TrEMBL record:
Transmembrane segments: none annotated. This is Pimeloyl-ACP methyl ester carboxylesterase. Residues 38-259 form the AB hydrolase-1 domain. It comes from Jiangella alba. InterPro entries: AB_hydrolase (IPR050471), AB_hydrolase_1 (IPR000073), AB_hydrolase_fold (IPR029058). The lineage of its organism: Bacteria, Bacillati, Actinomycetota, Actinomycetes, Jiangellales. GO terms for molecular function: catalytic activity.
């Protein structure tokens, strides 16, 4: 594992796989390499043509954190990673809300980007599922500030991920629960990244207008039906975007599916 110092002094921990053009894998809410091996496995499959970077987003795993949080700080983290791993332009891939961060980074102009790929950005643009509560981020912040990280995790699992409360109660007694408690403060980060895009309304027309690189938006063929309208909406919104259903379900796919899809996207675009 290597580290790089972001602009605000935060230490970002990362690993690399292979050699070639830089591909940065961005986890969504709660994810990081120690609990999500898909990124490393995908990097190994792409090792003959890409330098794949997997990293702990700030506040998770072996990365540190610096208050106050702002989306711009995470974009600066990506810029530091690109600079540390060979410069750009880089390919950005993001799972779930990590795909939204990838789009924001490309729109910012602060990160040299050649391609953006996103898997099931969790936009809520219709009434297929309930929208996030309007005070979602404030409730997350309040729970963490009061020393109740479990309440923050439960709010994310029920309101954002759509799990029934009884399933979350079962999780409280699992070995995975302490891991979730450790990263609970970062859940609000992804809430800020999502902003109003889970409100049940159309996506903002002006948020990514400066994105002029090829964009690939994927969703699993057998994923939860509520997760399909969001990818379709952003693919329709961005003139450089392509929508690609791939084998996958339950908000994920496999490295054996993802790696060739990314390779074809980058090498064919």
């Amino acid at each position: 594992m290597s580290t790089v110092t972001s602009k605000d002094g935060t230490t970002i921990a990362f690993d690399t796989y292979g050699e070639g053009r830089t591909l940065i894998m961005i986890d969504g809410a709660t994810g990081y390499p120690a609990i999500n091996p898909l990124n490393a496995e995908t990097g190994k499959l792409l090792a003959d043509g890409f330098r794949t970077v997997t990293y702990d987003r700030r506040g998770r795993g072996n990365s540190t954190d610096t208050a106050p949080y702002a989306i711009e700080r995470e974009i600066e983290d990506l810029a530091a990673l690109v600079d540390a791993t060979g410069g750009g332009p880089a390919v950005l891939f993001g799972w779930s809300s990590g795909g939204v961060l990838a789009l924001d980074a490309a729109a910012s102009g602060l990160v040299p980007v050649s391609h953006v790929a996103a898997f099931e950005p969790p936009f809520v643009v219709d009434d297929v599922r309930p929208p996030l509560p309007s005070d979602y981020v404030e409730r997350l912040d309040a729970a963490n500030a009061a020393g109740r990280p479990g309440d923050a995790v439960e709010l994310f699992m029920t309101a954002a991920a759509g799990m029934p409360p009884e399933a979350v109660e079962g999780m409280r007694h699992s070995d995975f629960w302490p891991v979730m408690l450790g990263i609970a403060p970062t859940i609000a980060y992804d809430g800020r990244i999502m902003g109003t895009t889970m409100s049940g309304n159309p996506l903002p027309a002006d948020r990514w207008t400066s994105v002029d690189v090829p964009v690939l938006v994927m969703h699993g063929i057998d994923t939860w039906p509520a997760l399909i309208p969001g990818p379709r909406a952003v693919a329709e919104l961005l003139p450089t975007a392509t929508l690609q259903p791939v084998p996958g379900e339950n908000h994920a796919t496999t490295p054996e599916v993802l790696a060739p899809a990314l390779r074809a996207f980058v090498e064919g675009a």
